[in-house]
Amino acid sequence: MNRSPRRKTQPKKFTPTRATTCPPENYLLRFKDNGELIVVKRSSLRSIFEDTVTVGTGVKRRFATIEAKGSYSQCNTIYEQMTCEDDNNDDNIPTDQEDTNELEDYSSNDECNQNEIPRVSPKAAKRKSSPLTIDDNEEDFDGTVLSSQHGLSTKKKRRVLGNSSLNEDHISENEIHTTAQPSELSSRVLYQKIDDIHASVIKKLERFSKSLDRVIPTSVAQNLDMYREKEEVFAPTVMHGLIDLLKTRGRDIYDFARQTLKILYTPEELSGSILPPTRIHLSRPALDIQRFDKFHEAVRVKYRIAAAHYDDCYSKLIKHRMSDFLIDERKRQAKASKT
After folding, report:
1. What is the mean pLDDT of each run of 10 residues along the chain (339 residues)?
2. In terms of CB atoms within 10 Å, which of 10, 56, 215, 249 comes out highest?
């Protein structure tokens, strides 16, 4: 396979003596759909081709013609001059001709599809872009303007203390017809999003409940009734040689478990071992399983925990504390060996 040679582009070198032409920062545009004039920054423009400019993307894409460019003050001065000229031209137009032009524009707008860009006269475009003063008998409370002359209804957004709101109850039939299918798709996406959020929240709550049992062990340990059953009978003693493990004193279930491990195992075994079962990927061996079964039996009988619920109690309350106890014993042994 023959590849074409890579095209190399030399970087442009800028020097203080070389004149550089920077693009203007501001543009005075006249939109082709309604003839509106506006001063726009260069960063807001999508593309520029000769004297035509594209603003926005997708459905909101609009085309405009460049009337002037340069600094903001220059574009604003030309904008004021052009608006004054438009005002003078509009004053010279007879009122009958204005009404006929607006009627023709409104009728053509009703016949065309809503996706098409409506074409209106410069006078009507100026009225759309400029603030309007409407009588109370022609405007409803939600900002819907009713024109009794043409029998048409249009919507305008009113700014009330910086908030704009439209009443959704006054949607036209054409809007309902065109937005019916996208609303179904959006509802499906919304339901799927809700299900995903619900599943993630459930997982986080389960994780939080497990960590809560470890972080707040005092309140959980004192409430051991959830692991007990009234009808179960327990042995009176748990012997290890000549020692009754049930007579070991401890301020709570954790202290009793630590004292029991100190009786069952030597300090060297506690500092050099881990909790059962044995794990192949760890270098330290596990504690003797037979003596650890006596540890389980002593804790269960001492605090009257049911055999069916002991595994849950051990995994949630006791296991993490005993693992920390072995780590502390390892630190104490290392500190003692240094001294």
Report:
1. 75 69 81 85 82 82 86 86 77 54 51 45 47 40 40 41 43 46 73 90 86 60 78 92 93 93 94 90 91 95 93 91 93 88
2. 56
Cis peptide before 11 (omega within 30 of 0): no
The 8-class DSSP code of residue 248 comes to -
- With a CB cutoff of 8 Å and minimum separation 6, the contacts of 194 are none
Give the span between the Cα atoms of 65 and 52, in whole angstroms. 5
pTM above 0.70, yes or no: no
Residue of 25, 128, 65, 70 whose CA lies nearest to 55: 65
Neighbouring C-alpha atoms within 13 Å toward the C-beta of 57: 3
CA quadruple 305, 307, 308, 309: dihedral sign: positive
